[in-house]
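Example 3.
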Amino acid sequence: MIGQFLFKNRSELPLKEDQANTFLEISIVVSVFLFSITLAAFFVISAMISSWNKSIVDGLSVQIMPSEQVLSADEELLRVGKVIQFFEGFENVEKVIQIKDSQIQKLMRPWLGQNVDLKELPMPKLLDVRLKNGKFFDYDKAAAQLKDVAPYASMDNYAIWLQKLVKSASSLKALSVFVLMLVLITTSFSIMYAVQTSLKIHQNIIEILHIMGATDDYIGKQYAKRIFIVALLASIIGSILSILALLMISYISANLDTGLIASATLTHFHWALLALLPLPTSLFAMLTALISVKRTLGKII
Amino acid sequence: METHKNILTEPIVEMQNVCIRYGDDPEVLSNIQLCLDKGSFHFLTGKSGAGKTSLLSMMYLSLMPSKGTVNVFGSNIGYASRNTMAMLRRKIGVVFQDFRLLEHLSAYDNVAIPLRIRAMNENEIQKRVKELLSWVELDKSMNKLCSTLSGGEKQRVAIARAVINRPEILLADEPTGNVDNDIASKLMKLFVELNKLGTTVVIATHSKDLITEYNYPQIHLENKSLKIIPALRRISR
């Protein structure tokens, strides 16, 4: 159907010779390159956020440091109970499990060796706070509140740090969406400018076509067809350039061996989407041209 | 003002109290009343600058009146949508004094435009265009770019383009001005034949010979106003 649309009807407008074509081609190559790179960044950031979230959504550990004073068993229970009660007060907390002392000792044994009597050492108490599945837990807020309620207890730093990282990455993700929108808007304006310039150049021919009964749609389709071809060729070039750049970035980042960024790779699905980008780009350009022609013709002729 | 109207036939172009003014300039035409019946044939006469081209432009829906009402095929063009205007224009064939051909296209492609606009089948277009170009003796030049054709050839292409659609109204501005007598006579015969088939014809001309030979009524423009000069006699053609 697209083939029929592209090759069936001849164009009465000499759009191939338009000088604005070169401007449009360069503009689309650059736009598609930027769009592709930004989209890849969006995919990578999304994958990283998802991977980090997975690490922190399950739960968190709370460490209750031993008191400097000697406490009775009841006082010790009260200290721990206060922290348990604190976490149970959160809506998104499913349950709070206290890790048994024997289990803690078992965990510590490899670090301290067999000759140390662990019962004699001041061991911290550990709580495993299980979160409700998929629910948001504000680590920063909880940590601040915990400081007031039980300053002797501390939350797992890793989760807090990771959530801060997720927040920063989310800002980057929002920024990438903004850049994508910006590229789309800029491309639309470039197409509209090229179309309006061309309409003014070919105003005489368009007038003749109108006199012979051509509708705005008939003229719009000639522009849409031309812009589709220009955009398709330009976006293929832009897409190839961006894929080469991304392959290079992937190669460099693969050799960096950084634990956190290791998950920042594009999947086959992402690569396929990037490779197919010229098609939606050309369709977008075609529709923009069609709308622009119709709107402009209503004003100038 | 004189109104020419045959109540027995269907009016195809009607103008009531029409004025034409370009910007702040004085009116070119003032208080025009005109009714063209379906199947009528008129010469449009008047001195240069009398407003012939303006009147024709209004008839082919390229110019809106600054005052008054224009009905074409029963539609008031002041209220017609852009699409309706396009559909109305498809029933009108126009021959411009300066031809207004698309110079970057061949003679064939120029003549094919009205049919392509109507989304006609390409085989049918080929058949019709070749036949008509052959009839106007341009069969050997049909693939030449219009920019390379002589004035007379261009005029024949312009006429072929105007009539290829078998229009209901044919408007021609000096259609025989650039061709030799033989071709002029042949083209006039074409207009007469189209008129016999029901096409309403209006030909703007300065040629007194043409007006005398083809004794049709005249729409005469003078001092911004219009009067109809009836045909004096019928001659056999």
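The helical segments of chain B are 52-59, 82-89, 107-117, 122-135, 151-163, 181-196, 208-213. Residues 1-8 of chain B have pLDDT under 50 and may be disordered.
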